[in-house]
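Today's session is about reading a structure prediction critically. Students often jump straight to the picture, but the first step is always the sequence itself: look for stretches that repeat, for charged clusters, for runs of hydrophobic residues. Only then move on to the predicted structure, which in these notes is written as discrete structure tokens rather than atom positions. Here is the chain we will use throughout the hour.
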Amino acid sequence: MRIATLANASVGHTRRWVRWFRSRGHEVRTWSLERPIEGFDSERLPSLPLPGALRYPLAAPDLANALARYQPDLVDAHFVPNYGLLGVLSGRRPLSVTAWGSDLLVSGPRDPLQRARAHFVLSRADLVLADAENLAVAARALGAVPSRTYTIPWGVDLARFHPAGEREPGLLISTRMHEPIYDLPTMIAGVAPVLARHPEVRLVVAGDGSLRSELERLAARLLPSGRVRFVGRLSSEALAQWLARAEIYLSASRSDSTSVSLLEALACGAVPVVSDIPGNREWVSDGIDAQLFSPGNPVSLRNALERALEDPEWRERARRIGRHIVEERADSDHNMGRIEALFATLARGDRAR
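Below is the predicted structure for this chain, in token form.
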């Protein structure tokens, strides 16, 4: 197939997605308003210094001209309000739109303009992909045609993310980006009394984002000296190594569809202590393979973390259950193959079904 992917080229998810389809022999060209991350080739669309509601639609004429030259079999747009809208405005069909979570779960419900824009896009898409059922429900409520809407988690590379070697006793890890939706301040505040009580426990914070400096200052103020380390954005290989060493994976996210970070932790055996939100409950169960806590509540996080740390036998059971879950439901090759088959159906001129 000849695929035109419209997505933010500055994020790792886009690069992984495109590389998978290229590895299958498809011709994939990517168009983006954002500058690509290192090692990822994409074609830059004009980006004026305007709000996103204007910036993306204004790029539509340039994109339409580029697609007329490329003649793709399929347009593959990611994130509903910006590239989904751009895909519709380009006038090319068939069009697949992939929701990423916050575009529908956070912005859509509270913003009338976002709701109208999402309906405009989703109702016109030939295929709508969601990586969690709560996201698919939101998409259908915002106009996606039910028969064209599929729940398929992207999954993880199980050959890369797996248990390996000895774990470091008391090692906690967070791998979420440093942005408000992931609520790292609650995570830091909840961890603080646990580190004070357990001298062997330490925290590694991976990732980056707009709040990094603020979070580093908060950690320096609340956490014991020398017991927290910010390691920045990691390669997939380095991330897998950290997760395989960690005893506990932490996430205080206030909203998620299927969290790839959670799946990576489950695959590597880092036991989840995560916020009690629908996206997480689609994958883990409180007291079975994870400890859940109330979103935004540091005391609830602290109590959940203490429960996880105090019972090594439970942690071992949880690790086995978690690995089984991702092997059964989150093998990226298998799940991406399902998406590839849907794309092929559209490329042949049929509706996905």
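Discussion point for the tutorial: The chain has 16 helices and 13 strands.
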